[in-house]
Amino acid sequence: MSAAPVIRLDGVSLSLGGRPILDRLTFDVPARGVTALIGPNGAGKSVTLRVIDGLLRPDSGAVRVGPGRTAFVFQRTALIRASAAANVALALGPLKLSRRDRRERVAAALARVGLFERAGDAATRFSGGEQQRLALARAWALRPTLLLLDEPTASLDPAATAVVEDLVAEMARAGTAVLLVSHNLGQVARLAERAIVLDAGRAVEQGPTRTILPSPRTPEARAYLTGELPWTSYAAAS
Amino acid sequence: MTETLHETFARLWTLDRDVIAIAWLSLRVSLTAVGLGLLFGIPLGSLVAVARFPGRDALVAVLNAFMGLPPVIVGLVLYLLLSRSGPLGGLGLLFTPGAMVAAQAVLATPLVAALTRQVVADAEAHLGEPLRSLRLSAPRRALVLIYDVRFSLVTAGLAAFGRAISEIGAVLVVGGNIDGHTRTMTTAISLETQKGDLSLALALGVVLMGLVLTVNAAAALLRGHAARAYG
C-alpha cells in the first residue's frame, strides 16, 4: 500500500463514565477499498467510529483522518421529518454551494440510490431499506473521501441488505475509503478486503479478510469468529 | 331557565355588536400573547434542551413549575410593575389591551418553553449526534431540531392559547374590565353573571367555547394535513 492511510489511530485511549472503552488502540485504514471493523459487542467499534469522526475526543493518543470529507451513516438512520430531498440537502448546508449546485447534487445522489422519483416524499414514511439508502445518498452527496458505516444493514431484510451492499461497493469502487462496522460476517467477506478485529478496545488482529475470517491467529479473534462466549475475554480485560 | 336559554339564543342570533367587540378583543389579546409566547418560549425551550450550562436543571424545574403559574399572581406582579409609581409606569400600559397581552404572554411563555424543551430534547437524543457529524453549526442544529418537531409545537401553541383565552385573573387585574376597552370574554362573563344578566353571560360563554373549538379545529386540521405529508 503506497498511498498514505486515510485513517491513522496511534495509541488512542478513551474512558466513558469511568469505564475504559478504547485501550491504546492503534491501526491504519488504507485510502482505498473497504475495511471492516469487527469484534464482539462492547469491544469499542462504534466508539472508534465516533472518535474517527470527531464526535468523541480521546483521552490520549493521536487520531489523523483525511484529507477530504468524512461521512457517517449511523445504525439508526437519522432522518428529519421532511422530504427525502431536504434530508440530503441538509448535509450540504455547510458546503456553501450555489442553489443550483446543491439541487443538482441532491438529485444525483438520490438517483444513485434509486430514490430520485421519491425526492418529494416524506423520508420518515420510507421503509427501513429505503431509509438506509437515503442515508447513503446523503453521505454520497458529500462526496466523501471516507465513509464510516455503523452496522448499516442491522435491521434490514436480505433483499434490502443486498441493495445497500451493492451501493457501498459502488462507492468504494468510485474511490471512497469505507470503514464498515458489521456483525454480519458474510457481509464482511463480501464487501471488505481488510479486517481489523477489536477486542476490549484494542486491535488484536488485522489483515486481509480472506485470511483472518477462515484462520484467525489470536485467541480473541478466534473466540469472536467462532462464536465462543466473547464476553468472558473482555470482561476479564476491563 | 327556559327563558334565559331563549334569550341566549336570541342574543346569539342577533350577535349584538358588544359581543362581537368583546370576542374580537379576547381573540386578539390571546393570539398576540401566544405569538409572543412562541417567539420567546421556543428558543428558550430549545436552548435549555440542547445547551449544557450551570443551573440548567434549576431552570428546567422553574420552567416546569411556571407552567402552573397562577394568573392572578402574574396580574398582581405586572400591576405593580406597570402602575404609575412602578418601574415600568412610564409606559402607560396599565388598563390597556397591551398590559393584558403582556400578562398572558408571561403565562404562555413558560408553558411553550417547557413543552418545547421536552420535544426538542427527545429529538436531540436521536438526531443530535448525526447533525454534529454533518458539521452543522450549533444554531443551525437547533433550527433543524425545532423544524423536526414542528408538529408537536402546534400542540404547545394550542395549550398556550387555551391557557391564555380562558384565564381571568391576569386580564382582570391589569386590564380592569373597562367596558369597550379592556373587557374580554372571561371578565364579561364573570361580570354579567354577578349582575344577573345570565342570558348575556351564557351567550358570551357559547361564543367563547366556539372560539376555542374553532382555533383548535383549525390547528388540528393544519397539523393533520402537514403530518400526513411529513409525519
From TrEMBL, chain A:
PROSITE patterns documented for this protein: ABC_TRANSPORTER_1, ABC_TRANSPORTER_2
Pfam families: ABC_tran
InterPro entries: AAA+_ATPase, ABC_transporter-like_ATP-bd, ABC_transporter-like_CS, ABC_transpr_LolD-like, P-loop_NTPase
Residue intervals of the ABC transporter domain: 7-225
The keyword Ribonucleoprotein is annotated on this UniProt entry: no
Keywords, ordered alphabetically: ATP-binding, Nucleotide-binding
GO-annotated cellular components: plasma membrane
Molecular function as annotated in GO: ATP binding; ATP hydrolysis activity; transmembrane transporter activity
Protein family: Belongs to the ABC transporter superfamily.
Name used for this protein in its record: Phosphate ABC transporter ATP-binding protein, PhoT family
Organism: Methylorubrum salsuginis
TrEMBL record, chain B:
GO cellular component, one term: plasma membrane
Localisation per UniProt entry: Cell membrane
Organism superkingdom: Bacteria
Limits of the ABC transmembrane type-1 domain: 23-219
UniProt topology in membrane: Multi-pass membrane protein
Key word Membrane present: yes
A GO biological process held by the record: transmembrane transport
PROSITE patterns assigned to the protein according to its UniProt record, in alphabetical order: ABC_TM1
Membrane-spanning parts: 20-51, 58-82, 88-108, 142-165, 200-222
InterPro entries per record: ABC_perm_TupB-like (IPR049783), MetI-like (IPR000515), MetI-like_sf (IPR035906)
Keywords assigned: Membrane, Transmembrane, Transmembrane helix
CDD domains: TM_PBP2
Name listed for the protein in its UniProt record: Tungstate transport system permease protein
Source organism of this protein record: Methylorubrum salsuginis
